Amino acid sequence: MLDFLKFPDPKDPIAIERLNLMNMAKLSIKGLIESALNLGRTLDSDYAPLQQFFVVMEHCLKHGLKSKKTFLGQNKSFWGPLELVEKLTPEAGEITASVKDLPGLKTPLGRGRAWLRLALMQKKLSDYMKTIINQKDLLSEFYEPNALMMEEEGAVIAGLLVGLNVIDANLCMKGEDLDSQVGVIDFSMYLKDGAHSSKSTEGDGQITAILDQKNYVEELNRHLSASVNNLQAKVDALEKSNTKLTEELAVANNRIISLQEELERVKEESSYVVESSRKASRADGTANGQVLGETRKQLKEETQLRLDVEKELEVQIGMKQEMELSMKMLEKDICEKHDALVELRQQLNEMRTLNHELSIKSHSSEAGAKQKSDIISRLEEKTNQMGSIIKQLESRCKKAERERDLADEANRLFKQEFGDKIESLQEEVEQLRRQSNSFFFFIREDQSLCKDTDPTICPMCENQDSLTTPKRQCKNCSGVFCENCMANELPLPSSINPEHVCDVCYSQLLQQYASSPS
């Protein structure tokens, strides 16, 4: 059943119309509930979403109504089905009585509109609609078999009306003209603008929403065009009937004038006959009784003819008054239909404008989607390239790891083979370094002994300028040198803090520190 509601037969316009009315009812009920909850107060008659809800409900109740022929043409009113609620549910008797007692309601349409408003205020509209829909045998008297109230869409709408029980409404119907209101659905209230969000992650959803709105607007456009054509045909038919009634009224006026002239002529003839009979009776009192009887008979006939003419005149005058009343009602109906036609044309123009805007948005969204797809393809190419590069790097990394493992293995083998020899050589180098240090120390002592005659000259640089410069003692070899030769500092094994050493000790200590593993 749900699949049937979502995908009706495209060749059945009645099914499509039922589905569209059900969707409009869903939108109007949802919008009314959301706006009423956001408003947070009791609704009145001037609230636009509430007015549109009543218009949509009126269209749903009118769908598939059987026509009743009257003097003014075919009449469709949903007041008859609503009166059934009083018989099926005694609680609805109060609403029906209140509707009948309202003084300003003159038509069944106005009474039906008032009943809907009172049922909403009573928060029983959903229960009453379910009660009516469950009685298909009674509804068949008022609706066609394929009407919305006879199908599953009516039950869906009745279920949706349960949500309206959370709404508080206070509607004053005194002084409100419910008979002559034009019920036209304002479709622009239910169209959404998708331009409020521009996030890239919602691009596909926006495109889908825009396409759905475009299809919806095209469907509404088609239905509005059909409604405009139907109203135009009705206006043309009303104009033809108006012309025909005008001609009949003119013929009736001519007939009344001719009858009035004939009545005057009969009156004159009757008065002439009476006057002649009186003169004859005066002139010849002994006239023949037969002539008098014939004159009386002729007088009766003329009198009866006069009465018949007067009755026909009264009938013609009544028909004239009835035609004038019909003409006025037809003119009023034509004005209402013309206003509705103008409003529908205005909504059609708005729908066309919205359709054009949605087409532009759709084209721009398609261009954006195409651009995004190009960017995605380029990113995919870059991803593939990076994947190939990563594979190459992984292969190179595995190769380097294999080479490292081989080098570690060779180093391990080398250490196993030459480790003892390297340690013995390092010990020999350390012994030779100590011997060289001691030897160098002995040489310096010999030089200092040899140069005791001139102790003020630096024994390392032997510059004549060192005579005037102050001397310092090397903390490593205990030799005395000038400041230029004692400019370096290093931490000694006997001292953690840096100490002044000569250039020769500085070089030896650096080599010693560099060669030692610690």
Automatic annotation (TrEMBL):
Keyword Membrane: yes
Gene3D superfamilies xrefs: 1.20.5.170, 1.20.58.900, Zinc/RING finger domain, C3HC4 (zinc finger)
Any Pfam family the entry gives: RUN
GO MF, any single term: zinc ion binding
Any Gene Ontology biological process: regulation of axonogenesis
RUN domain span: 44-176
GO annotations of cellular component type: cytoplasm; endomembrane system
Domain FYVE-type residue range list: 452-510
Subcellular location per the Swiss-Prot or TrEMBL entry: Endomembrane system
UniProt-listed InterPro entries: RUFY1-3 (IPR047335), Run_dom (IPR004012), Run_dom_sf (IPR037213), Znf_FYVE (IPR000306), Znf_FYVE-rel (IPR017455), Znf_FYVE_PHD (IPR011011), Znf_RING/FYVE/PHD (IPR013083)
Protein's UniProt name: Protein RUFY3-like
UniProt organism field: Sinocyclocheilus grahami (Dianchi golden-line fish)
